[in-house]
Write a structure and sequence with these properties.
Blueprint: E1 6-10, H1 14-24, E2 30-34, H2 37-46, E3 51-55, H3 63-72, E4 81-85, H4 91-99, E5 104-107, H5 112-143, H6 159-186, H7 191-214
Parallel strand pairs: 1-2, 1-3, 3-4, 4-5
Keywords: Coiled coil, Phosphoprotein
Pfam family, one: Response_reg
Modified residues (4-aspartylphosphate): 55
């Protein structure tokens, strides 16, 4: 079972949160509400999120300040933030949003189809990264001796068989990542989304090279280095 991605919705108005839930429910992911910047920061302490939809105009800690706190934390600094605002103060206001770390800045009322499409891109990128981490973890287990020797002899897979399975799984992720990159090119997507997709492809290339180096006859004897997950 593929675990659903979590999307954080931050707005002090319940009716706005309800509207966002109605728009994004078609994505079939886990939607988490936060009615303030403080509440959003608490949620980010324990859960991982694919993307954050953050209202700019909130009493107390506004969206800009909330984003600044998110970007200062190592755990959350790479989570994409989409700012939502009902007030258009001109280019300087938009620039402040991007300077705070937002990947997009959308004025209300927004097109539900556009918002859903933008969020779905970041959800897909998040899921691909999760799959990549899973493949890397499986490969590390193999390099370390199949989980420290705890498995029963009859249950252990031959190295060649495990490498073939990992290669097949990686090929499926590579195919999906390639399709996603083509979609981003066709749709003239945001530069941040394109850059994230390119970063994912680089990590996939590194993992593929590590797997290829472990194939019999390479002479590396399992000494290939794994791509960094940073």
């Amino acid at each position: 079972m593929v675990q659903k991605a979590k999307i954080l919705l931050v707005d002090d108005r319940p009716e706005n949160l309800l509207a966002l839930e109605a728009i994004l429910s078609a994505l079939d992911q886990t939607l988490v509400r936060a009615s303030s910047g403080e509440e959003a920061l608490k949620a980010l302490l324990t859960d991982d999120f694919a993307v954050i939809l953050l209202d700019v105009q909130m009493p107390g800690m506004d969206g800009f300040e909330t984003a600044a706190h998110i970007k200062r934390r190592e755990r959350t600094r790479d989570i994409p933030i989409i700012f939502l605002t009902a007030i258009n103060h001109g280019p300087h206001h938009t620039f402040r949003g991007y300077a705070a770390g937002a990947v997009d800045y959308i004025s209300k009322p927004f097109d539900p189809w556009v918002l859903r499409a933008k969020v779905s891109v970041f959800v897909e990128l998040y899921m691909k990264n999760c799959q990549l981490r899973e493949q890397a973890a499986l490969l590390r287990l193999q390099l370390e001796g199949g989980g420290g020797g705890k498995a029963e002899v009859g249950d252990a897979k031959e190295p060649a068989g495990l490498l073939a399975e990992l290669s097949a799984r990686l090929a499926a992720v590579e195919e999906q990542a390639e399709a996603l990159s083509k979609q981003l090119d066709d749709d003239s997507a945001d530069a941040a989304a394109v850059a994230t997709a390119a970063h994912l492809e680089r990590k996939l290339t590194g993992l593929r090279r590590a797997l290829d180096a472990l194939e019999p006859g390479t002479g590396n004897n399992g000494a290939a280095s794994l791509p960094s997950q940073n």
